[in-house]
Structure formats: structure tokens, C-alpha cells
Amino acid sequence: MPKVHITDTILRDAHQCLIATRMRTEDMLPICEKLDRVGYWSLEVWGGATFDACIRYLKEDPWERLARLREALPNTRLQMLLRGQNLLGYRHYSDDVVRAFVTRCAANGMDVFRIFDAMNDNRNLRTAIDSVKENGKHAQGAISYTISPVHNIELFVEQALELESFGCDSIAIKDMAGLLTPQVTAELVAALVNALKVPVHLHSHATAGLSDMCQLRAIENGCLHIDTAISSFANGASHPPTESMVVAFRDTEFDTGLDLELLQEIGFYFHEVRKKYHQFESEFTGLDTRVQLFQVPGGMISNLYAQLKEQGTLDKMNEVLKEIPRVREDLGYPPLVTPTSQIVGSQAAMNVITGERYKSITNEVKLYLQGRYGKPPGHVNTIVRQQAIGNEDIIEIRPADLLDDELEQLRSEIGETARSEEDVMIYAMFPEIGREFLTHRNEDTLVPEPLEPIHTGEGLPPASAPVEFNLTLHGETYHIKVTGTGHHQAETRPFYMTVDGVPEEVLLETLDIIPTDTAETTVVKTQRGSKRPKATEPGHVTTSMPGTIIEILVAVDDHVAAGDPVLISEAMKMETEIQSPLSGNVRAIHVEKGDSVNPDETLIEIEAD
To answer: Rounded to 5 degrees, what angle do the CA atoms 462, 465, 467 make?
Structure first.
């Protein structure tokens, strides 16, 4: 019986950290037979951003992925990451939805549920833990490790003891940003092992280059469960290499007993698979000791890179990284893990992109400051809170206690578009993109985002296109800046750009593809999007960031007051209210639900009183 047990993250967190969660199921299944023979304690296969990425980008049914992996891995525990009362979404769900979701996960083959709360507010974990136990599965309570003036070892031990009292079968230290040092790891693990009756697991990212040393110190102090990643998807923002840790403990009292040769075969397989996703590689996912300052977790960094790239603002990445700790301090030092990592990261990006801190505040930040995610660990900046929510009351109770049962309402809203309870859960997690996904699935029109061809050094170079350039046409030169792109639909894709500062939408329709072995010219048909008037008047409603309109809250001739929300947009997975700049009557609306919009466009015209 191996002394040290390994959970491999290759099918979930490893590719979430390094290629923005883009690995497709088709690249997982061929190696499952070998993965199943390794003898892992568990394989992490689901949860986190995988659910979102499946329906948003890959156009895969996440439940089908789970079912296929369960069938392909009959001898291995399957493990998932669950965000407590947030489940896999970005808001709190009512208790009946939490229970239903856990039940469907268990029924579809999940064995181990690693359950955490982004605020370390254990009140938000109780329902999920109870549901896992009721379904006869392994409930693992996780402590989100972070560094701040309000966090210390005594606090973490207190939280762990409470989770154990809830019935957790094990406790995990979730070091999502790689902030642990070897000495702190030894002290924290020793304190937890001495205080707890259940096993302690360590999950630590390699971002700062310390995690393998941390795992050694953890094991020396009584932790016998560690998370690793197959070497071809290891290190940097990911985890220590599985093969390396197996070698490190071989022929010692901690020997894992795992087959190194088999693990290396698996590593070679994923080495080739990773090449397929080269377009999602990022210079920000390698070794970076700045994490000790910015505290940006592995799963966040690759997605932040992709989101800024989509916004056309990748040049501001370092500014955003510097702004993240400032926003975190304003919000009372929440650990940076989903959804707070996304909440803090998106707000930091908005602060930088708009050029003014908190000029635009996401709905999620407003909900956070109301207490709807739980109790912040530290003191919240009262000026920011006042700016965000005014004099609204702060919630002191468990946020979910304010929610009525909503499962029946969700079933009614999605109606016959949902073919199963699993479909209802897809809609519950992500209503807008969930409905879109289910509709296209039912119509058999799902189209995953394209993968750029692998450049072999022959023929044309890989598709790495500039986002800002000058274009000369018929003797006239135009300055073009691409600010974003929309979702691929069959052979078409919208591009959002400014032409000499004027926002434009261009619909690109591919009529032919450049062959990889010739230099023939691609033929494309371009179509100017419906041009909205440029915002020039005080009553012209605009957005501060490129995004998608998900709700229109007013109609023509409605009267609005200054500051009233008139639109809701989505950018970087966060929702933002777009408010009326003055009091008056709505005279024109230039957008529809689902439209992509850019700064400086007039979205709504309001005539002042």
C-alpha cells in the first residue's frame, strides 16, 4: 500500500492553468486506459472552469464528458472541485439547487467532492457537504490558503476543525496561487494534522517555484495526499510534475508505488496533445515569483490573459496585475479563487482599461459588497462600498438563507429546451450561454471555437495576427485597432474594431481556407455591421468596455433618472449595469439583446428633462 497518495490534475486544473481550460474530451479519452492503470488515489476531472469552458467555447456537454470519463476510468476515483453554495457558477444558488446538482454529479459517477468557499465562510459549505454525504460520496472540505493581515495558521486550523465537525472525510489545503513557502507549509500541516482526525491533502500551484519543496515538507509533517500534474502539463501556474514527485519518494518510507514508466508514456502523450492548443499558451503561465505580490492563482492567470487578448487590451496585463492587490485590499482581502478571483480580476481590469478606478463597477462587486457572497475576511473600503451600493443594508446572515427555492422556476424557464435534469443544471449555472448551448445542441448546430493549425516550419506562418495596424485602401490610409471578437458561428465571425477612432463591427465570412502547404490567397466576404452613432451628447449612453448586451431594461418613451440602470452588459464573464447619465426620456435604442458593443458607441439616446 503506497505511503503517499497522488491526485493527478491533468484532466482539469492542469490544463485550466496552462491553456485556459481548452482541452477537449476527444483528447482525454484515448489515454484513459493508461491513466486508469496508474493507481492514483483520484483523478481530478471536472468542476472549476471546465463546465463553463465546455459550453462557452468547446460546445461540449459537460455532463456527457463526465459520463464518458466515468466509463473510461472504471477503477479510479473521479474528483471534482465544487464552489460550495456557488456550485460551478458565479452566484449563490438556493439550497434545493445545490442538493439537486450534487445528486446529479453523484449519479453521473463523481466520487470525491472538494468543496471550498472563496471567502472561507464555512456557512456556505454546509449544504453541499451534507448533500455529498447523503449521496454516499467523499466530502473533502477545502481551506482557501491566502496571505493577508487577517489570515494566520490559527484561523485556518479553526476553519478546518469546523469543516471536520460538518462531517468532512478529509481536509484540503487549497493553495491556488502558490503562496505557500516550505517553512509555512511545515507549520500549517503540522498544526492541522495534530488537530484533525481526518487526512490532510495538499493542493499547491508551482507558480513561484516552491510547490515541490512545500510538498516534501508537508509529507514530512504528516500529509500523505498531494496533487500533481503529468509533467507535460506541470510547473508554472500548474502543479509539481507527477513523475518527479514519484521519483523523489521512491525507495523511501513515503514511496508512492506508482509505475514511473507508465507515467512517462502518459506524459509523452500529453506532450503531443498540448501542441494542438498552442494558441492558448501564455507568457504569463510560467515561473513567476511576482505571485507573492499579486496573488493571482494559476487558473486565473491564463484566463485573464485570454480575456484581455479578446478585449484587445493585452498590453495592459502588467497594469492589471498591479491593480489586483489594490482591489483585493478594498474588498477586505478575500482569497483569490473562483469566483472572487474573477470578481477582483475583472474589476481590476475595468479600473485599468477605463482609466479611472471604479468608474464602472460590476454587478458581482456590488453583490459582494452587499454581503451576498458571505462575510469578507477583513475590513472593506467604506468609500468603495458607498460608491457601489450607496446606503443599502449589509447582509449579515448566510446569503443563501435569503433565497427561496428556485429549482422549479429554473425548470419552467428553460422548458422543453432542457431534455434532462442535467440540462436544467446547465441552464442554472449559466442562463444566457446555457440556453444558447442547449438550443444549438437541439438543432445540431454546435460549432466549437476553431483551433489554429500547428506550424511545422513549412508553408505559411501560424495565425498570429496584429490587433493594431494601418490599412491603405484606394489611396486612403486608415488606423485599425481590433478591440474584440465574437463567437464563431459556422463560417462567420464578428470582429469589433475602431477605424480612425470610430467603432465598427465587421462580419467575416470565410469562403475559402488558406491551405497549409501553399501560398494561395484567402477569399473573404466582409460586411459592415449596423453602425451606431458615435457618442457625442450628454444623453448618449455608452459602455466603458467592449462587451455583449444581455438585458435591455428600458423602452422608448420611458422616463429614467440619472444613475438608473438601462442596460446590462457582460464582459470578461462579469455583468455590469450601464446607467443613464442624466434624467430624461428614452428617445432611441440602438441595441438588441445579444449585440456586441464597443466604447464610444451610442447605445441609447436620452433626451434630458
So the answer is: 160
